[in-house]
């Protein structure tokens, strides 16, 4: 490359070293922003024309050339070159070869404000796609909850059986998590929706640029208020990656539940065969690889967030070339989260619930020990006293190797004189969950109301 043909060639007498060119190029990954870069350039050219810095003919030639380039890129025939370092210079070089007006397009613009404009345009679209994909997972969870609305399973704490709950209630917990994830992305999108173009390299421009007009053309809700912050800010990327890291953590937890439930030890569900794999050695195996990858990719999402935080922490104002390194973790996280969401949305409808195994596990009398405590409290015994008394019964049942419900009337009578007469009726898990009174609990009527509320919310009806 002749130094005079580069974007900064007037200052340099020597061409960049080939090693530097290979080391510093970003076109191999930032070219996925081509649509957004061209969209921003068309808006910029339109504004330049409207303020008198381009003629109508020049603006038309620029727009026509950019549309041709966009079509070539979409077809895969555009000649990308690392000689031109990045997406922006490749497009500008190709445009200038088509029309002399191409040399005027960069008027009042730096790559510093140009690149972050394209990034914000891209991220707005990506967030919209993410939220749509989240909704798809929520919908299949709601469908599953409705399909198996009467199935009981043990709820767990510390991965130990705790109390009986409806399977639907368990699934709705993930719908809640995903709702918060979607809200976080919506909130983050507001801070993405800021136009940096017109900030120049860092100090604005002496030219009569109309930034509000560009914001209007690109549908940004506001323009950046500080030119130095505008070109160096990557908070919006950090915030997006943080939202994805937490979303990935929620998906990992869901994947882990499904993996556990599909084991022989639990046996609550079978996963669809199309989303499992076999073993190269053991012919009987059916492994939950897709869910394990969802679980594993959560680490990748967290790693990308940490990578960007560390990248930013020591940078002085304003722009530094380090910021080129924001795109690969951003793109990787965006691709990773969509892949995870799409896998789950496709996998979950094919899950088969083994009702007998679930019912058997949920019928363990130990799961109703807390209900026994509540019964005693309702009959005038202090909670801590009742808790200790039931704990002693549990120890006695374990010593006799019987279930709690199999203790004799003589053994339970000391807790309360009315207890022997009620004893046999305390151990039905279905009756137990209908006794739940607190809003947000696993009471069947509450769970059904939640399913209906989500349906109404998504249909746009009042909740």
Q: Your description of this structure?
A:
This protein is mainly α. The chain has three domains: 105 residues, Fumarase C, Chain B, domain 1; 222 residues, Fumarase C, Chain A, domain 2 (Up-down Bundle); 98 residues, Fumarase/aspartase (C-terminal domain) (Ribonucleotide Reductase Protein R1, domain 1, Orthogonal Bundle). It is built from 19 helices and six strands. The protein has a two-stranded antiparallel sheet with strand order 1-2. The protein has a two-stranded parallel ribbon with strand order 3-4. Strands 5-6 form a two-stranded antiparallel ribbon. α8 links the parallel β3 and β4. 35% of the residues are buried. The model has no long low-confidence stretch (mean pLDDT 95).
Q: What are its keywords?
A:
Fumarase C, Chain B, domain 1, mainly alpha, Fumarase C, Chain A, domain 2, 463 residues, 3 domains, 19 helices, two-stranded antiparallel ribbon, Ribonucleotide Reductase Protein R1, domain 1, two-stranded parallel ribbon
Quick recap:
The protein is mainly alpha-helical and 463 residues long. Helices cover 59% and strands 5% of the residues.
Strand coverage percent: under 5%
> Helix segment count?
19
In helices, the fraction of residues equals 55-70%
Net shape: elongated
Structural domain tally: 3
Report the structural category: mainly alpha
Task: Give the tally of β-strands.
Answer: 6
Output the radius of gyration. 31 Å
Task: Spell out the helices and strands N to C.
Answer: HHHHHHEEHEHEHHEHHEHHHHHHH
Query: Could you tell me how far the N terminus lies from the C terminus, measured between alpha carbons in angstroms?
Result: 64 Å
The CATH topology of the largest domain corresponds to Fumarase C, Chain A, domain 2
**Uncertain residue segments:** none
How would you characterize the largest beta sheet? 2 strands, antiparallel
For the residues shown, what is the average pLDDT? Answer: 95
In the sheet with the most strands, the strands line up as 1-2
CATH arch. level architecture of the largest domain:
Up-down Bundle
Report the top-level CATH class of the largest domain.
Mainly Alpha
CATH homologous superfamily grouping of the largest domain: Fumarase/aspartase (Central domain)
């Amino acid at each position: 490359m002749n130094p005079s043909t580069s974007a900064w060639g007037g200052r340099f007498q020597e061409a960049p070293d080939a090693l530097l060119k290979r080391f510093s190029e970003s076109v191999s990954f930032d070219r996925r922003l081509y649509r957004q870069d061209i969209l921003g350039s068309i808006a910029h050219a339109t504004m330049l024309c409207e303020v008198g810095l381009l003629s109508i003919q020049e603006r038309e030639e620029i727009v026509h050339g950019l549309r041709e380039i966009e079509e070539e890129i979409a077809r895969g025939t555009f000649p990308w070159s690392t000689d031109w370092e990045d997406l922006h210079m490749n497009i500008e070089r190709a445009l200038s070869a088509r029309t002399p007006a191409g040399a005027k397009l960069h008027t009042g613009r730096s790559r510093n404000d140009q690149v972050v404009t394209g990034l914000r345009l891209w991220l707005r679209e990506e967030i919209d796609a993410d939220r749509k994909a989240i909704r798809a997972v929520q919908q299949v969870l709601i469908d599953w909850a409705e399909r198996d609305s009467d199935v009981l399973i043990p709820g767990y704490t510390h991965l130990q059986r705790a109390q009986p709950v409806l399977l639907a209630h368990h699934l709705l917990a993930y719908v809640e998590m995903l709702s918060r994830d979607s809200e976080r992305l919506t909130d983050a999108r507001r801070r993405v929706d800021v136009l940096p173009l017109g900030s120049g390299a860092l100090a604005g421009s002496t030219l009569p640029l109309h930034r509000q007009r560009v914001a209007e053309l690109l549908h940004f809700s506001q323009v950046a208020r500080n030119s130095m912050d505008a070109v160096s800010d990557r908070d919006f990327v950090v915030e997006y990656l943080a939202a994805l890291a937490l979303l990935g953590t929620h998906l990992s937890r869901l994947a882990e539940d499904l993996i556990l439930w599909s084991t022989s030890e639990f046996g609550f569900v079978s996963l669809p065969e199309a989303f499992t794999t076999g073993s190269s050695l053991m012919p009987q195996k059916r492994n939950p690889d897709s869910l394990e990858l969802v679980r594993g990719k959560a680490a990748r999402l967290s790693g990308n967030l940490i990578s960007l935080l560390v990248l930013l922490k020591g940078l002085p104002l304003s722009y530094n070339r380090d910021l080129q390194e924001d795109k690969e973790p951003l793109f990787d996280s965006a691709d990773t989260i969509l892949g995870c969401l799409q896998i789950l949305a496709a996998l979950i409808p094919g899950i088969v619930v083994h009702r007998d195994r679930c019912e058997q596990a949920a019928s363990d009398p130990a799961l109703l020990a807390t209900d026994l405590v509540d019964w005693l409290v309702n009959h005038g015994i202090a909670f801590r006293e009742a808790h200790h008394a039931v704990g002693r019964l549990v120890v006695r049942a374990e010593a006799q190797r019987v279930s709690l419900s199999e203790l004799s009337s003589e053994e339970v009578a000391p807790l309360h004189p009315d207890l022997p007469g009620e004893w046999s009726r305390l151990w039905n898990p279905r009756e137990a969950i209908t006794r739940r009174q607190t809003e947000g609990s696993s009471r069947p009527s509450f769970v059904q109301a939640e399913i209906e509320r989500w349906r109404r919310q998504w249909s746009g009806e009042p909740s």
